[in-house]
Amino acid sequence: MHKKIALFGSTGSIGVQSLEVIRQFPELFQVEVLTAFSNLELFRNQILEFNPTHVVIPDENKAGTLRTMLGDHPVQIHFGQDALKDQAAQANYDILIAAIVGFAGLASTWEAVQRGKIIALANKETLVVAGDLVRTKVLESGARLIPVDSEHSALFQCLIGEDPSRVEKITLTASGGPFLGKKPNFLINVKKDHALQHPNWTMGAKITIDSASLMNKGLEMIEAKWLFGMSNEQIEVIIHPQSIVHSFVHFTDGSVKAQLGLPDMKLPIQYALGYPERLSNNHKRYEIKNYPSLTFEVADTKTFRNLALAKEAMYRGGNSPCVLNAANEVVVEAFLKNRIGFLEMSDIIEQCLERMTFIEHPTMDDYIHTDLETRKLASTLYK
Ligand code: NAD
Ligand code: MG
Fold first, then answer.
1. What is the pLDDT of residue 15?
2. Could you give the CA distance from residue 87 to residue 31 in angstroms, rounded to a whole number?
3. Is the distance from CB of 99 to CB of 14 less than 8 angstroms?
């Protein structure tokens, strides 16, 4: 029996690597739905190779171009504002891979959660924005969230067979990104080309900037809180420049478990798709002797203020993480367009957190509204 896959965000970094994994196991997986936002050339090739029944491309004009590019290839093309949500709600799939970047991935993931589906979750923003609602709905609908994010995959693997009440704390590892050890007098002048050069991982632009600013680790703290039902105090971060130890779980008897591996997202993707089975592959192996020294250091949150701001938003709760996320999406885009400097990103996020109205128990509509209003505010805070 094949597992039917709906891959949301197939043309991105996680999307492409998910298809690489699927290509390795034609007897296990069958692609039912693919979605993309741009990059029609790549999308067409994916459609021709993997033969999905349905594809989504939100923009109507692009959908028309795609139809022409595909000739008489049999596939239903859906477009329009609600098309992503509708396919997540209606299509016939076993696993939805949530690989859209940012808040744009929330609506479709939420549909899959409501349907009680298995979700291979790369889109961490879903849990950052609406983690409380998603966690409650998961328990109600029977949905399963299997993390794709490497740190959370590590934690998930360490927690198997364990009693959650015997967990003392978790430690998320962070590479530190390209600016590890740098100070504000250096960071004030950095440009996107430098920020986009991650030492260990090749990823989409947004998460690469988030890694350079340590916002990514802040978002991951909030992601971990809702994935594993941790309290704020149980979550800590440590810098680990080699990106070999993907995270730690500390237990109440003093024992500590970690999961290790080379930094390659195909491993957590394959684990999520194969779960509960551990599939074999011939990827490059982690050889202990090649890494005689694994090092760890405390994060410099005075310089990398985004991590402190994310932690603050997590502790405040309510719609604060949603504000943090929306402001961050705006400033990352502005930084990528050379409109603002690297350090200005934190200034604008901080102002948004101060100025947006706090809602203690938001509904999904409140989150959507908060996202929209924060984007407007953040856009007025730079020229
Ligand atoms: P990416 O930018 O490479 O790809 C994003 C995908 O989403 C593309 O297919 C794009 O077409 C689609 N998309 C973008 N905007 C959209 C919109 N408005 N509506 C619909 N579709 C849209 O991003 P990525 O690096 O693959 O990251 C995807 C998600 O996975 C992010 O949430 C990221 O935090 C998470 N993640 C990525 C990595 C990684 O190694 N890349 C690791 C861990 C977690
Ligand atoms: Mg990660």
1. 98
2. 14
3. yes
Mean of the pLDDT values across residues 124-140? 98
pLDDT tens for each residue of 266-278: 999 999 999 999 9
Amino acid symbol at 115: R
The answer to whether residue 383 scores a pLDDT higher than 80 is: no
DSSP helix/strand/coil, 382: coil
Give the residue from 125, 126, 239 showing the smallest Cα distance to 179: 239
Report the residue count for the chain: 383
Protein residue whose Cα sits closest to atom 39 of ligand 1: 203
Max CA-CA distance within the chain? 63
243 vs 180: CA distance, rounded Å: 13
* DSSP designation for 271: H
Q: Which of the 8 DSSP states describes residue 2?
A: P
Residue 11 near ligand 1, beta carbon < 6 Å: yes
At 83, is the pLDDT very low, low, confident or very high (cuts 50, 70, 90)?
very high
Helix, strand, coil shares, percent, the chain, to 5? 50, 15, 35
- Tens digit of pLDDT for each residue in 204-257? 999 999 999 999 999 999 999 999 999 999 999 999 999 999 999 999 999 999
The share of the chain scoring above pLDDT 90, in percent, equals 98
> Rounded distance, CA 66 to CA 320, Å?
39
Q: Are 11 and 39 in contact (CB under 8 A)?
A: yes
CA angle 313, 102, 59 (to 5 degrees): 150
State the first-to-last Cα distance of the chain, in angstroms, to the nearest integer: 56
Q: What is the mean pLDDT of residues 68-86?
A: 97
- Residue whose pair of structure tokens reads 């978790």 in the numeric block: 170
Q: Compute the distance from residue 50 Cα to the ligand 2 centre, in Å.
A: 27
Ligand 1 within 6 A of 58 CB?
yes
What's residue 68's pLDDT? 98
Q: What values do phi and psi take at 43, rounded to 5? A: -60, -45
Say how far residue 191 (Cα) sits from the centre of its chain.
24
d(CA 231, CA 228): 9
Answer whether 321 contacts ligand 1 (Cβ < 6 A). Answer: no
